[in-house]
Amino acid sequence: MARVTFPFGPQHPVLPEPVQLILTCEDEKVVEVKPRIGYMHRGIEKGCELNPYKHNVFLCERICGICSFIHAEAYCEVIEKAMGIEVPPRARYLRVFWAELSRMHSHLLWLGLFADGFGLESLFMQCWRARELVLDVSELTSGHRIIQSTCVVGGVRKDLDAEQIRTVRKMLKQFKELYTPIFQVFQHDRTIKSRTWGKGILPKDVAWQLGAVGPTIRGSGWAFDARMDGYAAYGELGFEPVVEEGCDSYARMMVRAREVWQSWELINLVLDRLPAGEINVPVEDNPKGEAIHRAEQPRGEVIYYCRGDGSPNLKRLKVRTPSFANLPTLLVMLPGCELADVPVITLSIDPCIACTER
Amino acid sequence: MGLLTKARVKSPWLLHFCSSSCNGCDIEILACLTPYYDVERFGILHMGNPKHADILLVTGPANRRNYKVLQNLYAQMPDPKVVVAVGTCACTGGVFHNCYNIMGGIDKVIPVDVYVPGCAARPEAIIDGVVLALKKLRGELEE
Questions:
Q1: Predicted ipTM of the assembly
Q2: Which residues of chain B neighbour A125 with C-beta distances below 8 Å?
Q3: Which intervals hold domain NADH-quinone oxidoreductase subunit D (chain A) (predicted)?
């Protein structure tokens, strides 16, 4: 059988972002995959050296618009580590609140796109309907739907009052009613299982060797989550990672579907235990020395490194984003699959090209 | 308004291209297509093929690797066509203006008809921009 090579992307309806996969097929079977990246490169790391360090929060937030709050949070925490700033407890809890809102909306967005990927359009609409409620909570508390811009070096900019907390609790209850039937469909539906069960296998040892992160490695049976470090307020909230043993697309999907519930519970816990007090501390100095910080994004672990010399501009900022670690796993998952499964398997690692290429 | 013009303005198909945006505007464009905002009531369908499209929605600034893909897509669309720049960075370069790989707003690369500011642009603003683009499309068709 002759081999056919053709490009998948950079502009493709399944992928909202430009990335190119050069697929080599034998009949309907994929035998080789070569990713080509760089279409989204903006040069944000260098751009961060040109701005004063306090302004970089806004630039880091826009590395990726889907997990934007966690980028800002990780940036602020790495600067705070370098400068030795102690963040007030209320600010740490509020950071968890917005970070988990981001995770909920990102996972629902992904579950919807995944459903669309295997042709269940009405499920896509249902997921996005539930997601709108999460975005309403985000808008109510921060003033914006997706890019919250509430994190600053030294704490957060916005506070929750009693009225808002009451409304958020009511909306969370509504969300539970909306999401329960959707979750059951993902868990039990036969059509979904036939498209995901046993597809895109990432064996447990290979996942570790390739350095996969986030739901990709948790779907292969590793309890590996940066939130286990207990940064922000996760240590006090008693965090347990979600792990699935299946190693296939179904397992990765279930990790995300269950993490929506986990985030929902974490947000409720934060609202229960929100300590009183200040929401930020004044920051006067400039960062000196270096620091490194790990945080868990919806797609996996992000690592921020910064180095300053006492001037308002950083000397270096390095970001290792989760999709960059997850892309190599595609080279294990894709060869041997049917051509029709390529979009579903590619989506199962939730590739975020804006993150990867910055 | 002739029958052909009426038919084209009532069923514009749109093509979405992400040219190095942060994804914020992209997911808002997708949100426009869900029943909550529902651009389908204007007859708008999201198309993957530039040869079928009347409206090009571009998010994010033009960058040095990507601009040729964008120009290529624009050239493949049949006339008359309109281009909507969605988001502040598609209009001017925005927060990325001093990053080294960024050329600025997408009007440096292709002609733009409607600018939708906002970071990220809200779905209501995007729908407003698309409706404005439709008016322009009708004007071009009637000439």
A1: 0.81
A2: 34-35
A3: 119-281, 286-358
Which domain does B126 fall in, by range?
Answer: 3-142
Quote the tokens at residue B34. Answer: 């869900």
Q: Is A319 annotated as a binding residue?
A: yes
Own/partner pairs for A19-24, CB < 8 Å, 24+ apart?
A19/A351, A19/A353, A21/A330, A21/A334, A21/A342, A21/A346, A23/A334, A23/A339, A23/A342
Please compute the mean of the pLDDT values over residues A90-97 and round it to a whole number.
89
- In a mutational test of the B interface, the residue from A11, A60, A358 whose CB has the highest number of chain B CBs within 10 Å is A11
Q: Which residues of chain B have pLDDT under 70?
A: 1, 141-143
The DSSP letter of residue B78 is P
Kindly give the pairing relationship between strand A20-26 and strand A3-8: antiparallel
- Residue A14: predicted pLDDT: 61
CB–CB of B106/B84 below 8 Å?
Answer: no
Centroid of chain to Cα A98: 13
State the pLDDT at residue A15.
65
Q: Which distant-in-sequence residues (6+ apart) come within 8 Å of B18 by Cβ? A: A16, A17, A18, A40, B26, B59, B60
Instruction: Say if residue A67 carries a ligand binding annotation.
Output: yes
Question: Nearest CA of chain A to the CA of B79: how many Å?
Answer: 20
- Contact across the interface for A17 and B99, Cβ inside 8 Å: no
**Would you say A139 and A145 are in contact if contact means Cβ atoms under 8 Å apart?**
yes
Neighbouring CB atoms inside 10 A of B87's CB total 30
CA distance, residue A151 to nearest chain B CA (Å): 16
Provide the token pair at B98.
Answer: 């001093």
- Number of structural domains found in chain B: 1
Q: Give me B101's structure tokens.
A: 């790989």
Structure tokens at B58: 């571009």
What local confidence, expressed as pLDDT, does residue A12 receive? 67
The percentage of residues in chain A with a pLDDT greater than 90, rounded to a whole number, is 2
Q: Could you tell me the domains of chain A?
A: 43-328 (1.10.645.10)
CATH code of the domain containing B113: 3.40.50.12280
SS (H, E, C) chain A: CCEEEEEECCCECCECCCCEEEEEEECCEEEEEEEECCCCCCCHHHHHHHCECCCHHHHHHCCCCCCHHHHHHHHHHHHHHHHCCCCCHHHHHHHHHHHHHHHHHHHHHHHHHHHHHCCCHHHHHHHHHHHHHHHHHHHHHHCCCCCCCCEECCEECCCCCHHHHHHHHHHHHHHHHHHHHHHHHHHHCHHHHHHHCCCCCCCHHHHHHHCCCCHHHHCCCCCCCHHHHCCCCHHHHCCCCCCCCCCCHHHHHHHHHHHHHHHHHHHHHHHHHCCCCCCECCCCCCCEEEEEEEEEECCEEEEEEEEEECCCECCEEEEECHHHHHHHHHHHHCCCCEHHHHHHHHHHCCCCHHHHHC
